[in-house]
Automatic annotation (TrEMBL):
Residues 220-352 form the Thiamine pyrophosphate enzyme central domain. InterPro entries: DHS-like_NAD/FAD-binding_dom, Myo_inos_IolD, THDP-binding, Thiamin_PyroP_enz_cen_dom, Thiamin_PyroP_enz_TPP-bd_dom, TPP-bd_CS, TPP_enz, TPP_enzyme_TPP-bd. One of its GO terms (molecular function) is acetolactate synthase activity. Residues 419-571 form the Thiamine pyrophosphate enzyme TPP-binding domain. This is 3D-(3,5/4)-trihydroxycyclohexane-1,2-dione hydrolase. One of its GO terms (biological process) is isoleucine biosynthetic process. It comes from the Bacteria. PANTHER family: 3D-(3,5_4)-TRIHYDROXYCYCLOHEXANE-1,2-DIONE HYDROLASE (PTHR18968:SF9), THIAMINE PYROPHOSPHATE ENZYMES (PTHR18968). Keywords: Hydrolase, Thiamine pyrophosphate. Belongs to the TPP enzyme family. The keyword Hydrolase applies. Residues 48-131 form the Thiamine pyrophosphate enzyme N-terminal TPP-binding domain.
Length: 614
């Protein structure tokens, strides 16, 4: 007869989590780096007591905001290349719902996080309980059903024994390279406290290793034949290259076969920007070099990318009528997009097998010659964009240049998420080693930046983590600035204050709209705010300073290296200035009719651009 141990359901969860292991760089470590928790009446008695019992083996971290702590967990997984991850526990109601946005971030970016929101009473005796949202037509619904659309696996635990298969299924999803994403186990609060005789085997240590699926022979043969026929090949490297730890294989493939590489936001740093065959960013926020190759390519080897619209220029970037895509991806869903030749396999093994089969095949010499010329032209444009000027307000590009010069070394990791900065960074930032560029641009979630920086620092404590954030994102979610100070996780945060949502204001203008409700000066307000971001950051325990020039910014950045805790540097910037070089059309629907002539003119350009879509 199997041996059992009597535990509450919450205790079973905690003991299970601490027993899960993985191997990183040859060393066995816990796969869960810890649990973020904000306690309330839906989890403090159950999960709270359970986490206390395992606090030495499975640390619990306290945050200020549920969304913020969940963003930190998402960033931790991304910075760990999906090899390790975290869990998040909340009360019911608003505490749980606050994590849904972060679940969306994890889902879109295919990142593993375990969400453990509290839920209503399974026995329903005290219904409706505090914070319970009642559905008039369905007694089984709670607010946690909102997680279903942004979870790769969702389960509601209404009996203590149900957690046994649920936990096992959760681990399968969290560690699967194709199905990877957030898991939500909705824990009814009364069931958290109920006891059950669990099999001891549930709590035995288990080591989870990276699965590397090999390609189908026929798919591999078709991909090889397509590449051999190519005269203008291009590689698009996505985040899957980093998650597979395939950066060396990518570099070797490009060098052996003379194929230029363009990178997505998630794939940037998969190959160093100074590599001769790295053409930099692709698509809407792409470089002129990468986009020129994309427009003429007859073969696109898309490695570990989901080919979202910013990457493909809303599917108007690939202009060659003979262009074929080979989709090398662990997820068949991504590998077959837009009639691609699918090559469903691990990125590292797939690139190795392709290279071996191609042997001495190499792209025409003209391709490498064009790469050298286009890269040189693009780098000249970069240097012009980031150079300081005498303008009253610096551009985002000039601030990026200052940050790169001051603290953009080998040991730094750049973190950003939303607004105008990601586009400028994608073009201009010169990434070095793998993982040194950390952008959340799948969901482009405002408010991710500071919390994400905290998660990155927890995953990579030896690195200098630099967060760049606009005033709009800073205002949406800044509370984990204090958490970084509390936990002793030093960040360097550069706040660019353009007094509003400058990126969307520029998009509004580009689509013919009037300046309206984006910049503070164009919003319906009675008193123009003058927010002192320096004082605010200082009040949360950070070392903070405001600078008035690019030179002063570089000095402040250099001085921040000696600070013993998180440092915040604020600088006013121009809301309209942006890098004109590079880039591509993006499909943002413009109204067909409008009383504004500017909108009608923008619609004509929009209709013309749509004709280039595949």
């Amino acid at each position: 007869m199997a041996r059992t141990i009597r535990l509450t359901m919450a205790q079973a969860v905690a003991h299970f989590l601490k027993a899960q292991r993985t191997v990183v760089d040859g060393r066995q470590v816990p796969i869960f780096a810890g649990v973020w928790a904000i306690f309330g009446h839906g989890n403090v008695a159950g999960m709270g007591e359970a986490l206390y019992q395992v606090r030495e083996e499975l640390p619990t971290y306290r945050a200020h905001n549920e969304q913020g702590m969940a963003h930190a967990a998402v960033a931790y997984a991304k910075a760990s290349f999906r090899q390790r991850f975290m869990a998040c526990s909340t009360s019911i109601g608003p505490g749980a719902l606050n994590m849904v946005t972060a679940a969306g971030v994890a889902h879109v970016n295919r990142l593993p996080v375990l969400f453990l929101p509290g839920d209503v009473f399974a026995n329903r005796i005290p219904d409706p309980v505090l914070q319970q949202a009642e559905d008039f037509g369905d007694g089984t619904v709670s607010v946690n059903d909102a997680f279903r659309s942004v979870s790769r696996y969702f389960d509601r635990i209404t009996r203590p024994e149900q957690v046994i298969p649920a936990l096992r299924r959760a681990m399968q999803v969290l560690t699967d390279p194709a199905d990877c994403g957030p898991v939500t186990l909705s824990l009814c609060q009364d069931v958290q406290a109920e006891a059950y005789d669990y099999p001891e085997g549930l709590f035995e240590e288990k080591v989870w290793r990276v699965r590397r699926p090999r390609p189908d022979a026929d798919e591999l043969a078709a991909a090889i034949e397509a590449i051999r026929q190519a005269e203008r090949p291009l590689i698009i490297a996505g985040g899957g290259v980093l998650y597979s730890r395939a950066t060396a294989e990518l570099k070797a493939f490009a060098g052996m076969h003379g194929v230029p590489i363009a990178v997505t936001q998630a794939g940037k740093s998969a190959i160093p920007d100074d590599h001769p065959l790295c053409m930099g960013a692709i698509g809407v926020t792409g470089t002129s070099a990468a986009n020129a190759f994309a427009e003429e390519a007859d073969l696109i080897l898309a490695v570990g990318t989901r080919l979202q619209d910013f990457t493909t220029g809303s599917w108007a970037l690939f202009r060659n009528e003979r262009a074929r895509i080979v989709g090398l991806n662990t997820a068949a869903f991504d590998a077959a997009k837009h009639d691609s030749l699918p090559l469903v396999c691990d990125a590292r093994d797939g690139l190795t097998l392709l290279s071996e089969a191609l042997g001495g095949w190499k792209a025409p010499a003209a391709v490498e010659a064009a790469a050298a010329r286009r890269k040189a032209e693009w780098m000249a444009a970069v240097n012009r964009a980031i150079a300081p000027s005498n303008a009253a307000l610096p551009s985002d590009a000039q601030v990026i240049g200052a940050v790169q010069r001051a603290i953009g070394g080998e040991n730094s990791i750049l973190v950003c998420a939303a607004g105008g900065l990601p586009g400028e960074l994608h073009k201009l930032w010169q990434a070095g080693k793998p993982g040194s560029y950390h952008l959340e641009y799948g969901f482009s979630c405002m408010g991710y930046e500071i919390a994400g920086g905290l998660g990155v620092k927890m995953a990579r404590p030896e690195a200098d983590v630099v967060v760049m954030v606009g005033d709009g994102s800073y205002m949406m979610l800044n509370s984990e600035l204090s958490t970084s100070v509390m936990l002793g996780k030093k960040l360097t945060v550069v706040v660019l204050d353009n007094r509003g949502f400058g990126c969307i204001n520029r998009l509004q203008m580009a689509t013919g709209g009037a300046n309206f409700n984006n910049l503070l000066k164009d919003a319906q307000i009675e008193t123009m705010p003058d927010i002192d971001f320096r004082a605010h950051a200082e009040s949360m325990g950070a070392v903070a300073v405001k600078v008035s020039s690019i030179a002063d910014l570089e000095t402040a950045l250099a001085q921040s290296k000696d600070n013993d805790r998180t440092s915040v540097i604020v600088i006013d910037t121009d809301p309209l200035a942006t890098t004109e070089a590079g880039g591509h059309w993006w499909d943002v629907a413009v109204p067909e009719v409008s009383p504004r002539g500017e909108v009608n003119a923008a619609r004509e350009k929009y209709d013309a651009a749509r004709r280039a879509q595949r």
